[in-house]
Amino acid sequence: MDSKIEIKVTNPKNGDKVVHSVRPGHATSPSPSSQPSQSSDGRRRRQGQGYGHGEGEGQRNRGREGQHAGRLIDFMPFKKWVPWMIPGFVLVNIFLFMITMYINNCPKNSKKCVGSFLGRFSFQPFKENPLLGPSSSTLEKMGALEVSKVVKSRQAWRMISCIWLHAGVFHILANMLSLLFIGIRLEQEFGFVRIGMLYLIAGFGGSILSSLFIQTGISVGASGALFGFLGSMLSELITNWTIYSNKFAALLTLVLVIVINLAMGILPHVDNFAHIGGFISGFLLGFVFLIRPQFGYVSQKKVPPGYIAPSRKPKHKTYQYVLWVCSLILLIAGFAIGLVLLLRGVNLNEHCSWCHYMSCIPTPLWSCKNRQVYCQSTEFGKSLNLTCISNGKSEIYPLTEENTSQVQQLCSKLCG
């Protein structure tokens, strides 16, 4: 009995659907719909879209399409993954923010809290944290990026833990919406393993560059990892160039989104060095993790047993291999050099007089200088007397272990 399996292929270049008729022991050869075929009686007959195996088989194939409809195999060029990791990341970030607010316990440490009806989940005063969040000392306890602790105390784990923490409600809301919008699409296309590694490594790269330029204060947020996603999308478009139809429109749109987001990083109190470091890391990682087989490559796993596949093309093009190797070398070298400089306590601002403008550009509306606060402290029995040097204000606090560990926070309130 003559049996065959029809494989419906979607060409990602133009979206046209083509039906391949595959029979045992026969290779397929294309016959476009506009190509006339010669019948046995010498008459020219136009075949429908498909691949024929002999004279007049186009008609028989069309007649059997209904009979073999249940045996069609839909061949998808790329596997679609069910996204679960990115929503999981969002839940983890929200959960850690709730824990941070619980530990912060504003009513116990501050006289005035925003949203006091929330109890210990209430927020620090606006003067201290305008993002509706915890204090700097609480974030530092939770694992915020603080260069002095990374260099002197060798707490390198802060370079990863900081990307799971957020400074306030506005901060986490903006980052989590961006993570869902960008990350779910990437996880659907490339799976949770590659996207999860990209998220962590790009976030780590953002922490490295941030630590080399911003060495005062603390830094938290997932924005470095998010910019890594944007960078990987750009490199994915470049390395998989041949499978996209509207290439230049997609490239222009993506570049415009990246430029706008990086431009927002020049505002004060935004760590644009983490954005840039994450973007560069993600751009290089995209060439390594997000490479796709070229169009026309057929995996033997997709071919049913006993059937001969069409002539195969190489899985990847030469330029894809070149970009893969070069990106991996640059990534490893950049991370190694950055870590060596960081652990030696190098401040790159001393070697680049203009680099600070990449993170903040001063205007008449704002200043880019970090306002340092200094206080003089004196202990009287069970009391702690703090005096702000800049404004002369003085206040006495009950001397407890918590107050002695939060002198900088109390000083910021006094000088605010």
From TrEMBL:
Keywords: Hydrolase, Membrane, Protease, Serine protease, Transmembrane, Transmembrane helix. This is RHOMBOID-like protein. Its main location: membrane. It is found in: Membrane. It is a multi-pass membrane protein. PANTHER family: RHOMBOID-LIKE PROTEIN 1, RHOMBOID-RELATED. Residues 154-290 form the Peptidase S54 rhomboid domain. It catalyses: Cleaves type-1 transmembrane domains using a catalytic dyad composed of serine and histidine that are contributed by different transmembrane domains. Residues 54-67 have a biased composition (Basic and acidic residues). The keyword Magnesium does not apply. Its EC number is 3.4.21.105. It is an enzyme of class 3 (hydrolase). Belongs to the peptidase S54 family. Serine protease involved in intramembrane proteolysis. Residues 1-67 are annotated as: Disordered. The chain crosses the membrane at residues 81-103, 163-184, 196-214, 220-241, 248-267, 273-291, 321-343. It comes from the Eukaryota. Residues 29-40 have a biased composition (Low complexity).
